[in-house]
Amino acid sequence: MVEFFVNGGSFMWPILGTLIIGLAFIGERLYHLIRALRTKFDFAVSLTSIIEKDGIEAAKTTCDGAEGPVANLCYNALEVANQGPEAVERKLEQTAGIEMASLEKNMTWISLCIATAPMLGFLGTIAGMIVAFADIAAAENISPKIVADGIGQALYTTAFGLVVAVIIQFGQNTIMFIIDNLIVTIQKSMTVVTESIAKKSKK
Questions:
Q1: How far apart are alpha carbons 42 and 106 in whole angstroms?
Q2: Does pLDDT of 147 surpass 70?
Q3: Which of 47, 99, 140, 147 is most buried, by CB atoms within 10 Å?
Q4: Cα separation, 186 vs 193, whole angstroms
Q5: DSSP H helical segments within 37-84, as ranges?
């Protein structure tokens, strides 16, 4: 592996840097999303029971001690519960976008790393080909060894750039899968909590 990296030339370093940066952003997103998963749909269901039995204030206390977008949105809905279902829906519309944006934070940087890695690889390929032709011109003959060294360097950078892009792409797809599931959970949770608040306000 070390020999592969060394043979790729100087362009292997920026590609490696792109891999490290991409993995850093993926790790940050996974950490944030794992924390967001601490409250799921069952939290919203249990919250409806608290609303019906103990009231709005007890439900707010439960949300206050929990983490994640589901708990945050439930708390925001409960804050305006005394103003009626319409106020609850407006509040959720205002704050849901913030929570969604928080889930997708830094995703553009991950996409940038996916696009940059193969581009650097192709740039390294061009640099390798330039070196190969320069060596041929200096030697004034087409030696298989001279051509092989330059083309080999070119192909190493292309391969490494594509491998890095695939690794980061896999991480991005994993994150998007988690985000999609979280969005569905948030929508379901908001529905049951809103219905529970509406029922409580009618009593």
A1: 28
A2: no
A3: 47
A4: 10
A5: 41-54, 56-64, 69-79
Q: Which DSSP letter does residue 39 get?
A: S
Both tokens of residue 17?
């840097």
Amino acid occupying residue 43? F
Give the closest residue to 78 by CA, choosing from 102, 38, 99, 51. Answer: 51
Tokens of 43: 């939290």
Query: If you search the block for the tokens 């949105």, which residue do you land on?
Result: 73
pLDDT per position as a tens digit, 75-92 = 888 888 777 777 888 888
Distant-in-sequence contacts of 132-139, Cβ < 8 A, 24+ apart: none
Q: What is the arithmetic mean of pLDDT over 156-161?
A: 90
DSSP reduced 3-state for 67: coil
Please name the residue ranges forming H helices in the chain: 2-7, 12-36, 41-54, 56-64, 69-79, 85-103, 107-139, 144-202
Write the CB contacts of 6 (distance below 8 Å, at least 6 apart in sequence).
Answer: 12
Q: Which two tokens stand for residue 35?
A: 């924390």
